[in-house]
Amino acid sequence: MPSTTTGSGGGRHSISTHPGSSRKGRTRRCEHPGPSRPGTDRRVGRLVGPFPGACAPDPVQTATKAVAILPLANLRNCRWPAERTFTTLVRSSLDHNGNPDFRNGQVRCTSMDAEQYADTPYGEVRRVPGRDYLAYYPRPLPDSVDLPRDTVQLLADAEAALGRLAGVGHLLPDPHLLIRPYLLREALASTRIEGTRASLVGVLEAEAGGEALGLDVEEVVNYVKAMEQGLALLEELPFSLRLVREMHAILLDGVRGRDRRPGEIRTTQNWIGAPGATITTASFVPPPPEELGPLLTDWERFVHENRTIPVLVQSGLIHYQFETIHPFLDGNGRLGRLVIVFHLVLRERLPSPLLYLSPYFEQRREDYYVRLQAVRERGDLDGWIRFYLRGVEIQANDAVARAERLVDLRESYRARVMESTRSQAVALVDLLFAHPILTARLVEADVDVRRPTALRMLDQLVDLGILHEMEPGPRRQRRFIAPEVIAVLGEDNE
């Protein structure tokens, strides 16, 4: 997603530049409202011409690759393809070499414009009193919504799929057999939307111990920790802003954004745009901080009190409003996607967090942003609800299919171990679903056995073909992987 910046005007992501790399014979012209000299205005403007180039504030004029374009409704935000931002580009905008594809017409970078926003029941754009910039002012979520007939059918399909998933959750001998693997899928996809490059195996290796955590892996691990801690707190606390703030603090602990006041509602204005964008050239400016108190109070009330809107529709509205309010300086996207699952568990539509929507959003990243923005610009709430409900149906069906395969694997593994009369190793079967990469240290801690016994049990599963031994880790630590479990969990977009 376009990076969130604060009053300093600095983007969250780094910009890689090579001064003097502009090509001879190619000119660039940035157009801005009002008088300006082409190519000299320091604001992000509008780049015209079917050629590679970039809209960016001086002194950054050139980059190692042409700037790529991320469509956002009828806006197009200039993104520098630096290490962190390049992975967030919409794939349809890239050629076969992974470079921006400029063949399909003009490249345009535009900033937030009040004329693009209609005054809708869901909000309006207006100038912030006493300040020289525009912001979007969301209105409270509606107490009821009218759904067209085809949207009602989508709701019924999504409800049915979610019901099947809930049924699987109730029938599991141990729900934790799926909770942690599914949390990893959700965490990987949600952080990838924000530009991380972590892989499932990389995260599992780090969790197995002995690996130095890279920042991308640490963000995924924090996401899982935030969800697990939030679920634990939900047994003691109501779902509230306090709980959301607790999760936010965990989410940003020790990773990028740790200097953005983890766990604290923002007291300064933030905005969304290209790295280096100013508040006047940002593509979206959330409500000013003085508006957050009433907006978040209403958001929390809606979470708990609304009983007239179907739960699935309500969860989609809760996510939309959270992303629009943007209450934190960083981490809003990841936290907003976590909130969806918490709401469904809170309203008892799921016995445990088995639904992972972020892979759906990641695969359709452009549509995800377009649909959210279309509510703000045109009041197209139905378009967002339809997109969201399709995601619930698709991901619930996917989760059911994976659950059935994982349960079948579990039964197969247990039978194999029991037939070999090595009954002690049965204790490892469920553990390897939560941790498909195992070490003796993990087995010692979970099964409560000594190191020699742990290694013997692992070797027994290797002999049975359930585990494969990997290359030794740091300090020559032996590591074992469950390849069939990894294959079922899979990874989208790899």
What keyword list fits this structure?
494 residues; mainly alpha; Fic-like fold; three-stranded antiparallel β-sheet; two-stranded antiparallel ribbon; disordered N terminus
Question: Secondary-structure map with pairings?
Answer:
Blueprint lengths: L3 E2 L24 E2 L14 E2 L20 E5 L2 E5 L43 E5 L6 E5 L10 H23 L4 H18 L6 H9 L6 H20 L6 H11 L19 E2 L19 H14 L5 H15 L6 H15 L11 H6 L1 H14 L2 H39 L6 H9 L2 E2 L1 H9 L2 H13 L4 E2 L10 E2 L1 H7 L5
Antiparallel strand pairs: 1-8, 2-3, 4-5, 6-7, 9-11, 10-11
Describe the 3D structure:
A hairpin with a 2-residue loop joins β4 (68-72) and β5 (75-79). This protein is mainly alpha-helical. Among the domains are: 147-266 and 277-399, Fido-like domain (Fic-like fold); 420-489, Winged helix-like DNA-binding domain superfamily/Winged helix DNA-binding domain (Arc Repressor Mutant, subunit A, Orthogonal Bundle), CATH 1.10.10. The chain is built from 15 helices and 11 strands.
